[in-house]
Design a protein that fits this description.
The protein is mostly helical. The chain has a single domain, classed as Orthogonal Bundle (ABC transporter involved in vitamin B12 uptake, BtuC), CATH 1.10.3470. The protein contains eleven helices and four strands; from the N terminus they run ααααβββααααβααα. The protein is globular and about 60 Å long. The N and C termini lie far apart (about 55 Å). Belongs to the binding-protein-dependent transport system permease family. LivHM subfamily.
């Protein structure tokens, strides 16, 4: 029972991060029908920017409170990633909106390699230790079950951000414009919606979520490097497909479900495989799920939002 509860906690932690990243994928896809495969690398830029900010603050203000230091690092990383998201949409994707689907896909993959290469030039190839500004001393709420304060913060912050994003999309004027653009951007523009601004705003919000997810991911594992966004990005894409890409609720659900499946798989894979596999093979579960969903339920758990037209 202790192992079961422990894997449940681990799954919720990593699933919360996947959900935040998946929201960026699903928002862009819902409006443009584009899979932005460079989204995971925005996560990497956010984590490394936060790391650089923390190292700078440690040098100039070593007595600064860890909470203030982490807050300042986020306040730097989020605008940097938002600017990056805006530039990606404006320079790389805007001219390809009416192009065949293969062109934006290839461009997105190219942007991913470009971001990784630039990050490698700036921060080098080596892994960097990410400062643990929030205590990592394990708490034991239940005998034999451990959770760190960092993981508690990740779960609570992720839940708050997801609720806030849902309210933004469903209750605000810009959210109404986003839904109208997703429904039909040509008709929305005829009704007075600035679709270019809405699409740019979507990229900016997705990039901000990726920056926060990057700091969470690096804080949880204690490392950051130029290639750190590739695998979480692929898994978050899997989560978006699993939940129903284009559906915000589906992205949240898909991220949590994928995190739980991955965690339970890592915890029990050795037993299930009779000792042939160990927890280092946990990544196979994400891609097994992706294959099964694409074969048996391509629309995902909650399905893609499609409106009937006369």
């Amino acid at each position: 029972m202790e192992t079961l509860i422990q894997q449940l906690i681990n799954g919720l932690v990593i699933g919360s991060v996947y959900a935040l990243i998946a929201l960026g994928y699903t928002m862009v896809y819902g409006i443009l029908g584009l899979i932005n495969f460079a989204h995971g690398d925005v996560l990497m830029v956010g984590a490394l920017t936060a790391l650089q900010t923390m190292l700078f603050l440690m040098g100039v203000a070593p007595g600064l409170s860890p909470i203030y230091m982490l807050t300042i690092a986020l306040m730097v990383a989020i605008p940097v990633c938002m600017t990056l998201g805006f530039l990606m949409e404006r320079l790389a994707y805007r001219r390809l909106r009416n192009a065949p689907r293969l062109a934006p896909l290839i461009t997105a993959i190219g942007m991913s390699f470009l971001l990784q290469t630039v990050a490698m030039i700036i921060w080098g190839r080596n892994y960097h230790t990410f400062p643990q500004l929030i205590s990592t001393t394990p708490l034991e709420p239940i005998a034999g079950v451990f959770i760190t304060p960092v993981q508690v913060v990740i779960i609570i912050a992720s839940a708050a951000i997801m609720i806030g994003l849902s309210l933004l999309v469903t209750r605000s004027k810009i959210g109404r414009a986003m839904r109208a653009t997703a429904e039909n951007h040509r008709v929305a523009s005829l009704m007075g919606v600035d679709t270019n601004a809405v699409i740019a705003f979507t990229f900016v919000v997705g990039a901000a979520l990726a920056a926060i997810a990057g700091v969470m991911f690096a804080s949880n594992y204690g490392i950051a490097h130029y290639g750190m966004g590739f695998m979480p990005g692929l898994k978050a894409f899997t989560a978006a497909v699993l939940g129903g890409i284009g559906n915000l609720g589906g992205a949240m659900l898909g991220g949590i479900v994928l995190g739980l499946v991955e965690s339970f798989g890592a915890g029990y894979i050795e037993h299930l495989s009779f000792g042939f596999l160990n927890s280092s093979y946990q990544d196979i579960f994400a891609f097994i799920i992706l294959g099964l969903v694409l074969i048996f339920k391509p629309t995902g758990l909650l399905g893609e939002r499609v409106s009937d037209r006369a």
